[in-house]
Amino acid sequence: MPKRHGGASVDLQLQPLSSLPGVGPRVAEKLAARGLTTLQDLWLQLPRQYEDRTSLTPIRALQPGVAAQFEGRVEAVERGFRYRPVLRVAIGDDSRSTLVLRFFHFRAAQVAQFRVGARVRCYGTPKPGQLGLEIVHPSYRVLDDEDAAALGDRLDPVYPAVEGIGPVSLRRLIGLALDRLPDEDALELLPAELRQRLSLPSLREALLTVHRPPQDADVAALIAGVHPAQRRLALEELLAHHLSLRRQRIAQQAHRAPALKGLALAERLRKALPFALTGAQKRVFDEIRADLAKPSPMLRLVQGDVGSGKTVVAAMAAMIAVHAGKQAALMAPTELLAEQHLNNLRAWLEPLGVRVAWLAGKVTGKARASVLQDVASGQAQVVVGTHALMQEGVAFRDLALAIVDEQHRFGVHQRLALRDKGAGGAVGADAIVPHQLVMTATPIPRTLAMAAYADLDVSAIDELPPGRTPVQTVALSDERRPDLVQRIRNACAEGRQAYWVCTLIDDSDEVEAQAAQSTFEDLSRQLAPLRVGLVHGRMKAKDKQATMRAFKDGELDLLVATTVIEVGVDVPNASLMIIENAERLGLAQLHQLRGRVGRGQAASSCVLLYRPPLSTLARQRLETMRQTHDGFVIAEKDLELRGPGELLGTRQTGLAGFRVADLVRDADLLPQVQALGERLLAQAPDTAQRIVARWVGGAARYASA
Ligand code: ADP
Ligand code: MG
Prior knowledge:
- The chain folds into four domains: 6-50 and 165-224, no CATH class; 55-143, CATH 2.40.50.140; 264-461, 3-Layer(aba) Sandwich (Rossmann fold), CATH 3.40.50.300; 472-628, Rossmann fold (3-Layer(aba) Sandwich).
- 39% of the residues lie in helices and 17% in strands.
- Helix 10 (228-254) crosses helix 25, helix 22 (616-627) runs antiparallel to helix 23 (631-641) and helix 24 (670-683) crosses helix 25.
- The relative contact order is 0.10.
- The site of magnesium ion has 5 residues, from helix 13.
């Protein structure tokens, strides 16, 4: 494929993927479902991580937690059953060590492959098992005896999965797209002067490096995500997001919104509450009230630590909309959380004569039709739900306030989709749009907030309701586990409830669910006759809800759970939280989990169980948890502790959706991003537009937002 130059390359970048050999309508459709429609989209489909298959590690030298490739012969095969079928294959090599491969789902043909003596090459991350190291669902290949089976000569990129397209095909397609990468000048959008100053490679070079790491590449840097090629891409990606947020903000401010001024209903709610608002709640409500009174749309983020009482502030804001004869919507990221909001709002609002409707994925058929009708007629004054609120077919009569809880779980686009419900579709420049209120319990340091929320005004509820005693936090080694059973008994004897959180963050949902299942069984036995419940991510939503509700209603004493309980769950009577493998969680997540207790009057405690030996970093994290309860302090500490290479944390930054950038790891790029962003918007709006389109997509949408 010849390279193209100049103007032609713009077209090339936008060339549809159907121009690649092997991409028929079916494949194209699957790619499109992932937002991949042009060559450029595939260039920017960046590896999530790398696998190093360039060498073989003797089994004896394998380390827990460190991914590696190794080879050996099948020594024994065992098919068993523990809650579900399991296949275990022992592999040994010349280093005379053995490792166990464990499979939970497998086909008969797979079992047959593992003859004793067969040669197997595997890649995976070992962890301590019952009989030494084991790997759950490794990638593996059974080799012929004669098979020389060459080793890879460079790092293998691992791409985010695309449903319906296998990893090998996906890699091939990305390779084909890369073969058509235009030359440097045609591709580059960043000013040369900036790249030089920061010693960053061109976009072309950066893309080729991350997709096809050269043999002499700095492997450790690539794996840690700090290679100059990755930094270069991160800079451009952060810039694209920043630009899109800024432009959106500018466009938003051009819209009109209903000026909502009547406070009588909000006042009635406040007076009916069983508690007085904190000073911080009052202040933030005042900020919201002032925004709502203006004829331009509010765009406000409320940051408030877990338990700071954001919901009631949101409810009061909703009352301003309802008083004006309009509607308010509250959207939460999980059904559990949405349902909790529903219960709170019903308890608070129905006595005031306000009608609250419920719309979630599981509301179907006639019930759904009837809710939709109430929403469309305005009969439903406040509508609570999940993503289902944004679906097609949901039309409001007059939505004036859109509230999004735990915003870090949603993207900007989803927020806009809810906003658009106010205008009955995508909105033109002079449209009337709803006010937007966004709430988050994941405080992030100021610099990061500026980048992540460049389109929002920020309020902070930086005070907890009175009477909460800080959660007593201790870190205990695993060996003390048996003592905890007594501790749970004591708490429950006082009529309190407890959580036991099982985490295995390296593994799949499935393995985590299994661990929770067996912990549940053990604890049920040891704690009898206490009532123990279980929730995990692989249960049906209905069963999860039922168990959560039983716990909330005091019908269960102990809840064994995976991190599905992380966000927002409110059971004030729970006073003891035990977190297993706490050393493997990031600070923000630990803080969120701990926030589930200490919500009532009783003194609460949190036990962080860890498996020794602790790394320095893990020790510091646990220490921070013992010392402070302030989410903002914890966020700063998190940023400080998490240097480059600390990969565990990437899941918890919460600011999901980046392909390569990591707001914590790449925080030092943010000042550049901001300065450059303002300059481009002022001097080169076309370039700004192209950067946004390239990374964020939906360019047309932003143009009209
Ligand atoms: P979060 O900010 O984490 O979403 P919630 O809104 O769920 O917190 O509030 C946590 C708990 O505190 C709820 O039970 C709520 O009713 C209660 N609460 C809220 N504000 C106050 C207050 N000012 N005084 C006492 N309790 C409050
Ligand atoms: Mg909340």
